[in-house]
Amino acid sequence: MSLILALDQGTTSSRAILFDEMEPVYTSQHEYTQCYPKSGWVEHVPGEIVESQLLCVKEALDFAGERKIDAIGITNQRETTIVWDRNTGLPVYNAIVWQCRRTFDFCAHLKNGGYEELIREKTGLPIDPYFSASKIKWILDNVDGARERAERGELLFGTVDTWLIWNLTGGRVHATDVSNASRTQLFNINTMEWDDELLSLFTVPRSMLPKVLSSSDDYGSAEIYGRTIPIMGVAGDQQSALFGQSCFSVGESKNTYGTGAFLLTNIGDKPIKEKNGLITTVAWRLGDKVTYALEGSVFCAGSVIKWLRDGLGLIQSSSETEEIARSVQDNGGVYIVPAFTGLGAPYWDSEARGVICGLTAGATKAHIVRSALESIAYQVNDLINLIRDAEVPITRLCVDGGASANDFLLEFQSGISDIVIVRRSSVEATARGAALLADMGLKGIDSPVYDTDEEGKAYFTPSMAAEKREEYTSAWKKAVERTLS
C-alpha cells in the first residue's frame, strides 16, 4: 500500500498531507510570517518557509509511525523568488512573493520598449511584476554585491519548490519542474528550455538557474529525521490542482479558491497564443509529452475573507461567512472590488486599488460579508468568460481550495457563471496532484489514469435567472471601473 507525502507550500502556510492509496489520511499545517516592508511589497523569510515545512513533515512522519513513506511530492506557490549562496545555502535577501508589485516600473519600461510581443511569444506570459524574472533582476540590482557574486557563479535562483528541494537534499539537487519554470518568464514554452534572449533582457546569469525536469521525475532523496525518501513529483500549485482534479482532456477546467483564485483549462499538447488577458502556461510534462493550459489569475480571493477577519474584525473565522451571507436576501447594492495588490486577468492593472461601492445607511455587516464572498465569484466569472471567448469548451468546473468549502460561494458562482460546479469530498486537489505525480514517478508510469469515482462529489447547478445575472454582472463591471488606474 503506497504511502505518499505531499508537501504543499503555500503563500500563507506550509502543509504536509499523507496520502494512503491516494486518499488523504493526515494533514499538518503551520502559518509563517508575512512581511510588507512597503506599500505593494510582499516578502517571506526563506528560512521560515523551510522551518514551517519541516515542522509539518515531522508531524506527518510521527503520524505514520513505522510505516514507510514511499515518495515525496512537492507543490508550491509559484513565482515567488529566492536567491541564495550556492556554498553556504544562505539567502541574500527575503523571498519576493508573487503578489509583490515592486518591479512595476521596470515592467513598464519593457512594455514601453516594445518587448511585450516577444515575451508573450516565448513564454505565453504578459509583462507583469507577478512573474519571477523581474524579481531576480531587482535582487541582483539592489542587494549589495549580488550581481557581482551572481556573475561569478556564486548565487542560485529558485522558486519555492527549488528552495525546498535544495534544503531537503542537503544542497545536492538544484532543480525545478517545467510547470514552475514556465512561470519565471525566462523559460521558452515552445522549445522547453531556458531562453538566452530572455536571460539577456532581464540580465540574469544562466549559472543561477536550476535544471528543469519533468513533473514526474527523480529529484533526489530527502534525508530527513532519520529517513531517506525519494522526491518523485513536483508541480506548481495550480498545475498540480489541475492534475489532481483529473483534468487530463482538452477543455477540462478547475478553479482553486486560495489566497488568489486560479482558473486553468487543459488545451492539449500545443500552446496557443494568449488571448484577452489569459496566460498560456505549461501544465505538466510526463516523459516527453507536454500538456499546456490556459490560465486566468485573480490576485485576491480567499485573502478578502482574511481581510474581513484580520483587517476589519467583522468575523472570527472564515467558516462564519456562509451563515452571515445567507442572513440577507442579497448584497443590498454593496460591491467590493478587492484590488489590494492590483487586478489580474483580464485587466492586468498593477496600480488598481480596492473599493467598496454602494454603501448606504441600510448597509450592514452581513451585506459587506456577502459582497466579499460575491467578489470572489465575480472575479472568477470574468475568467470563465475569457475562456469562453477563446473558443475553448468549458461545460463544468472542478473546484478546490479552502474557500470551495463554502456552499454559498459555489451556489453563487454556479448562478453568476451559468455553469455546473463539481466539488470533491476532499478539497485537497493541489496536494493530491503532487502525490499522484510522485506515485507515478515511483512506479515509472507516464500516462495518468482518469478518475471516474463519483463518490462524495457535490454538484452545484445554476439556478439564477438570466435577468438577475445580467443585473449583477453589470453592477460589478461598473464597480471595477472605479478601481482602474
Notes on the protein architecture:
- There is one protein chain.
- This protein is 34% helix and 24% strand.
- The protein contains 15 helices and 23 strands.
- The chain has helices at residues 46-64, 104-112, 116-123, 132-142, 146-151, 160-168, 178-181, 196-201, 237-244, 302-311, 321-326, 365-389, 407-417, 429-443, 466-481; strands spanning 3-9, 13-20, 23-31, 43-44, 71-76, 82-85, 95-96, 155-158, 175-177, 187-188, 193-194, 211-213, 221-224, 227-236, 253-257, 261-268, 279-286, 289-298, 335-337, 355-357, 396-400, 420-423, 458-460.
- The strands form seven sheets. It has a seven-stranded mixed sheet. It has a six-stranded mixed sheet with strand order 3-2-1-5-14-13, sandwiched between helices.
- A hairpin with a 4-residue loop joins strand 10 (187-188) and strand 11.
- Helix 9 packs across helix 14 (429-443).
Short description:
It contains 15 helices and 23 strands. It is of the alpha+beta class.
Identify the notable features of this structure and list them briefly.
485 residues, alpha+beta, 7-stranded mixed β-sheet, 6-stranded mixed β-sheet, 15 helices, globular
